[in-house]
Amino acid sequence: MTFCSIERVVMILIEDLTIVSQREIAPRIFEMVLKGEMVADMQLGQFIHLKVPDPSKLLRRPISISEIDYNKKEATIVYRVEREGTAILSKMVAGKTIDTMGPQGNGFDISIIEAGQKALLVGGGIGVPPLVETAKQLKAKGVEVVSVIGFANKNAVILEDKLRACGDVYVTTDDGSYGIKGYVSTVIDNFDWTPDAVYSCGAPGMLKYVDSKFENHPHAYVSMEARMACGMGACYACVVHVKGETDTKNLRVCEEGPVFPTGKVIV
User: Which residues of the sequence carry a binding annotation for FAD (predicted)?
Assistant: First the structure.
């Protein structure tokens, strides 16, 4: 199925992906493994749009891709139960299929960094999952990976082990119940080195910090989150505003994003 926009033509697939497994990895945080042909087209930093199997839920749920196994044709997503829609998703079991649209969006660009260089990954809360595949592919390229991930408390910490398998990891918690007390900025501001590339995803406050600190960095990126309706760029429900424009200029998170260079949009 092909949808046309002014800027480009985008191939969007719709497929019933099979649930391989699902488990709760932290309170209200679920990890789901999906299998299907669509996986072959997935890239790190993209997302998929899931249809909730309930006729009263009209809008799909956008969820970031956390891991990709091209050989098995499997992709892992990690999401938080927020309301009824995601609560329904969390009750689905292995063997069931889920109507999936995607893969969608522009993801992280790792072509700009080479073996022997150093990448900084910055994540917060449910923004950590898309950094896992990024870390894996960076490590495979021979890039040194350093991850700084922040959470509210010890019970909210997720995916530390998967990131640690790819490089050094610093964990912060707001209350100090695990790792370093404070925010990701507590760690990053004390680094005595400059990363060759920065990849980040998380809450608006954290992204504002990354966007400001690395605004003039040539290879620093923020992955934005926004409420979506169509997910195809037609409805303009997920726009962010471009910095430095005298007239209002918007970019769509589902099309031009979710990943933007730092200094590009108003976070």
Answer: 61-64, 78-80, 85-86
Please indicate if the annotation marks 204 as binding a ligand.
Answer: no
Shortest CA distance to 233 belongs to which of 57, 64, 11?
11
Domain 2-104: assigned CATH number: 2.40.30.10
Is 258 annotated as a binding-site member? no
238 is known to lie in a ligand binding site: yes
**Is residue 200 within 8 Å of residue 132, measured between CB atoms?**
no
The pTM score is 0.91
Beta bridge partners of 198: 120, 220
How many whole angstroms separate alpha carbon 133 and alpha carbon 139?
A: 10
Check the annotation: does 85 bind a ligand: yes
Structure confidence by residue, pLDDT tens digits, 48-63: 999 999 999 888 899 9
Give the strand pairing for 197-201 and 97-104. Answer: unpaired
Map out the domains of the chain as residue ranges: 2-104
62 among annotated binding-site residues? yes
69 CB contacts (<8 Å, ≥6 apart)?
39, 75, 76
Which residue(s) pair with 94 in the sheet?
none
The reply, when asked if residue 64 is annotated as ligand binding, is yes
